[in-house]
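User: We ran a pulldown and think these components assemble together. Before we commit to crystallization trials, I'd like a predicted model of the whole complex to look at. Sequences follow.
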Amino acid sequence: MSILPLFQWASHAPILAVMRNSKWGFAVVEMVHLLALASFGGTLLLIDLGVLGIGLRPRPVSSVARGLARLFRGSLILTVVSGALLVSAEAMKCYYHPAFRVKMLLFVLALTFNFTLHRKLVETQTDATPTAGSKVSAVVSLALWFSVGVAGRSIGFL
Amino acid sequence: MSALQICQWIHDTSLATSIRESDFVYPIIETIHVLAIALLVGTVAIVDLRLLGIVLKRERVSRVAGQVLPLTWAGFVAMFVSGGLLFVAQAAKSYANPAFRIKMVLLALVVLNPLVFHSTIYRSVGTWDDAPAAPRRGRLAAVLSICLWSGIIIAGRAIAYY
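Assistant: Here's a predicted model for the assembly, 320 residues in total across the polymer chains.
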């Protein structure tokens, strides 16, 4: 199964016409994407850097992660929804864009890693000092999300 | 010398010209600037949301605020330096850009907010440190901060549209 038809649909769908035809439609969604990204990035940094002992020092890690879980999920959802709308404005261009493809690959990797191994390690951590395993996990998580950001920014430059 | 002339002079310096004309330097600085948004505004937002009683309600306000601060400063330095270089590269163009002017006004206001907050409401933090949400004036400062920073991001993004 190919996802090409999905991109073809997006580039013709009447419901998405405002994204394609209006300059401010795109601009407004882009601003929302940035705002969501700021709150997502901030939450992610606090959780992962907390595991590494920088910033919100864990006491235990799981309480910080739980306290921020809703903000993390909420801003992630807003980032994905606004991002999908941005893609719909230039669906075919994105489909063939190398940086976009790399970004999506990294995004799926980062998301999968976060909601499987990483989350399990961070949220079950009940003692005050993080284990070596969860520290490695935090570094991998930060590296993955950082590369999603860099790949995303380069869509506009390549 | 008028502000416009100063901007024009900055615009014409060799540093500005080399940033503007390089294929890689400008995009790299811009990427750093966007990532710094997450570090600065993201961490500020978490302290604001704590004041409003939306996240980390069980953690002390002073603990959240104190421990997040070094990250916020790191983000501020990264954002200020990268933003400064982006401005230098396009100084004369930025000067006339309405979105840029709005952004500068909002930036000046957003700096005042923590200054006022820390010299007034935050002094009594000991009496409401464990409370789920800050007193009314603390919540007001938090809402102002979120609005101003959102405005700065929006205006910053709008610079490219003028």
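The helical segments of chain B are 3-12, 14-21, 25-51, 61-89, 91-95, 98-119, 125-128, 136-158. That may be worth checking against your pulldown data before setting up trials.

User: Thanks, that helps.
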